[in-house]
TrEMBL record, chains A, B:
Family: Belongs to the multicopper oxidase family.
Gene3D superfamilies: Cupredoxins - blue copper proteins (2.60.40.420)
Ranges of residues in domain Plastocyanin-like: 50-164, 208-276, 383-501
Gene Ontology CC annotations of this record: extracellular region; plasmodesma
Keywords: Copper, Metal-binding, Oxidoreductase, Repeat, Secreted
One Pfam match: Cu-oxidase_3
CDD domains per UniProt: CuRO_1_AAO, CuRO_3_AAO
Keyword Oxidoreductase: yes
Organism for this UniProt entry: Rhynchospora pubera
Name this protein carries in UniProt: L-ascorbate oxidase
Coiled coil: none
């Protein structure tokens, strides 16, 4: 009988999913027992090439974006404090590319965050960009494309950061099983980009008599709690301990179902086997796969989210915030096309990345209209918008350096009556504290209910239908950081904002990151 | 009874074709009768935006690359000597784009030829590039994407250049019918790019009692000849006169069949109607559509090509050439992948466009190894290559300015026994004279058979299976010019060379054309 660390990451979004799991079985023991040697940080130098490849993960051949001929991309293993250098060559024939290192804070290297047109120019075909950053904290992370909808094309992989040499995990286990969940579309991403609606998914694992003890969320320890199944949204990552206390020769189903929208696809299935058999030798479990909970059982979903609280020793949030930003999530229309908006502005990105245009104070590089911190106080979140017409804008929030900011993500009714979707949001460059959740419209008085005692640190949050979620963070990382719904088509439809902080403290940005748009013009017109 | 100018242009390439014709019926009278006013050149200023759009040309919806929401793109009408300015905005989400103006010589504006990585940098998403060029000569031209396989994605349209104001056509007609032939794939171009084999097509029009008198080829008058059907290869354009001498209410089939490879798709059909009916009012012709000739009836194909001779008054070629380049067309392998090669080198393009790197003498911008003017004298063109292994290279030929060059395109057996395909080649920046054709291996003595009396001027040529075709041109246009098989997948597989001439005479290249790769670095490092 052994115990294993079971890590689960989510990248899903969409309704035409036909297959949801990629299972990696890496049984290398991770536990490091109290060595007294000094921790010495290492540099991992990787040469990666992004190109197209045929793959048939669900027995239907399709083009995928692969890294070094692998799909999903190679797993990065590092220790906290190590430096990761990825020389990324773009071998796509006509498209730009970037890679975002999801969960890595990029302290001092905001240009390496991998957000196209926010932190850097897209890497041009046949060119190479060097991502160099520190794996700042142990945790279960992943990386993925962040340009157009290249994530859905298969451009993603795992980034596992272990504790420093000589440090101990807070919990013991004998091995590690990583599971990366992702949607799989038969439609190509160019077709998808033209107009699919989308959906969050729920990862439901009923491990057949295996209880899961959740110990980590988004790279932060949480107060352990034990469940039979879990909710996991796009952008989330969790670690759970499981104990192999069943019969040694038995195999067990893992079942993954859709959440938040009536599924049109069957659950995805994986097998948990105690034996290190090859796939061909694997026998199907005798029991039928477990049924996943109803897609609209929100009570169950909320109950899971509410259980996530900080582990002892987790830093506490500042007692008060300097600024409160309320972001109303609505579905709207522009010229008949459906968009997603924040405070009635749908985000579009400029052709010059913000990091460069702000750092060098370039004029006219983006729409200068400042977005609002509030929406109408009388907005009825329970009904479709009275005025569904929206506009586009930069949604760029300039945040005072080192200030403490609260953001309330307010959900509302979509365009159709009685529809309000789940949205998983992801903040770049930061962890934040999840201060609380509420039903209906957020009110000033709700601040008194904020959990400032054991609020969990996360980089993703979820807003439930018709509800709100409150977060707090300290703007202490000079750079420009995306904050957006992690459902890729929602982001593509404008569901995001951009936060700029301490721009004057950003050191010289590598030329390769800004050799497009107005920053390229600036560089070309520079005279010694 | 009226006579019409029937112009036909070809853009096809591939075997998964399901539909081949786009018919434009523009019955505006073109004839201009001897005005004595002075010709005054006009500037046509166009604002174009390339974006994706759904279209169902064969009743199956698919994504296409459209211009201003139109597929095919808008038709440009200009007169000889006019200036065309196209401000092209790239609204594709992640891909670069360029447009090549097929048949326009770009004298003095080599950066406007629209060949990605040869004449310019790909235009980045959300950026705009200005194509400004002179419509130097009356003719039937077209434009199309020239980056990756974007042409197959639907990025093309017509460019009709009429004679100058006050000038007469050499022939009279009452109206004009333009027909642009193109392949239509259900597979997306990204999937295609990974590895389709391909094929030239033959346009066969049997106009049901309508004889066609061919009067123009690739923008040059030819000695008129009359046929029932014609061969047309990718990149070709022809004008034919037809006379509406049948019953006024009858409709007539136009039938288009595949040529050079056993077709797997039915012939494409169009209807020639004398009445200006809307499509819904159109009645199908009573007769069955005409059967197109056998796909492998090469005798018939050759007979058509051999009939194309220069019209009286066409400039004659110089009597002798200063240089003879022989290019052996072979199918080869690199690491098992099938390629097309010239003199056993398969062309790859660098990330810095040649025009900029040559003009500014940048080091290391491309593979400097010079390609050869000859291949082994004992090469057996009737058999598969003895050594099928090939390498990649720049295939850049530096040509002495104002020199006269002969190029022999030598066909050969492909990788499989008893297979030799038809290849339609296209030269940018030039017209050339087609001096002759031959069977088997070209020999020095064949020079004596060259037609220097009434050789037709063209910008496309065809090589027949196991045969050769000889062309002559004067290198009098400063720039870097692609010369390649016009079958898009063949070009993608390396079937092309690049000709550089008079580079030192190229005036200052617009920055937008060279703001990538090493030329961008050069611009960024320039100190006043």
């Amino acid at each position: 009988m052994k115990s294993f660390l079971f890590t689960i990451m989510q990248l899903t979004s969409e309704k035409k999913r036909t297959m949801s799991t990629s299972v990696f079985s890496c049984f290398a023991t991770l536990l490091v027992f109290g060595f007294s040697s000094l921790a010495s940080a290492k540099t991992h130098h990787l040469h990666w090439e992004v190109s197209y490849m045929f793959a048939s993960p669900d027995c239907q051949e399709k083009l995928v974006m692969a890294i070094n001929g692998q799909f999903p991309g190679p797993t990065i293993h590092a220790k906290a404090g190590d430096t990761v250098v990825v020389e990324l060559k773009n071998s796509l024939p006509t498209e730009g590319v970037v890679i975002h290192w999801h969960g890595i804070k990029q302290i001092g290297t905001p240009w390496a965050d991998g957000t196209a047109l926010i932190s850097q120019c897209p890497i041009k075909p046949d060119e190479t960009f060097v991502y160099k950053f520190q794996a700042d904290k142990a945790g279960t992370y992943f990386y993925h494309g962040h340009y157009g909808m290249q994530r859905a094309a298969g451009l993603y992989g795992l980034l596992i950061v272990d504790v420093k040499e000589g440090e101990k995990e807070k919990f013991k286990y004998d091995g590690e099983i990583n599971m990366l969940l992702s949607d799989w579309y038969h439609q190509d991403i160019y077709t998808q980009m033209v107009g699919l609606s989308s959906n969050p998914f729920r990862w439901i694992g009923e491990p057949q008599n295996h209880k899961m003890t959740i110990v980590e969320a988004d790279g932060n320890y949480v107060d352990p709690f034990t469940v039979d199944d879990m909710d996991i949204y796009s952008g989330d990552s969790y670690s759970a301990l499981i104990t192999t206390d069943q019969h040694v020769s038995s195999n067990h189903w893992i079942s993954v179902g859709v959440r938040g929208r009536q599924p049109k696809t069957p659950p995805a299935l994986a097998i948990l086997s105690y034996l290190n058999n090859s796939q061909s030798q694997l026998e199907l479990p005798k029991a039928t796969p477990p049924t996943t909970p109803l897609w609209n059982d929100y009570t169950r979903s909320k109950s899971f989210s509410y259980k996530i609280l900080a582990a002892k020793g987790t830093p506490k949030p500042p007692k008060k915030a300097d600024r409160l930003i309320q972001l109303l999530n609505t579905q709207n229309r522009i010229d008949g096309f459906i968009k997603w908006s924040l405070n009635n502005v749908s985000m579009v990105l400029p052709s010059t990345p913000y990091l460069g245009s702000l750092r060098y104070s370039l004029k006219g590089a983006f729409d200068q209209k400042k977005p609002r911190d509030r929406f109408g106080a009388n907005y009825n979140v329970m009904k479709p918008p009275i005025n569904p017409n929206t506009t586009t804008g930069s949604n760029l929030y300039e945040i005072k350096f080192n200030s403490t900011v609260d953001i309330i993500l307010q959900n509302a009714n979509a365009l159709s009556e009685n529809v309000s979707e789940i949205h998983p949001w992801h903040l770049h460059g930061h962890d934040f504290w999840v201060l609380g959740y509420g039903e209906g419209l957020f009110r000033k008085k709700d601040v008194s209910r904020f959990n400032v005692e054991n609020a969990p640190l996360r980089n993703t949050l979820v807003i439930f239908p018709y509800g709100w979620t409150a977060i707090r963070f300290v703007a202490d990382n000079p750079g420009v950081w995306a904050f957006h719904c992690h459902i890729e088509p929602h982001l593509h439809m404008g569901m995001g904002v951009v936060l700029a902080e301490g721009i004057e403290l950003v050191k010289e940005i590598p030329k390769d990151a800004i050799s497009c748009g107005k920053t390229a013009n600036m560089l070309m017109n520079q005279h010694g």
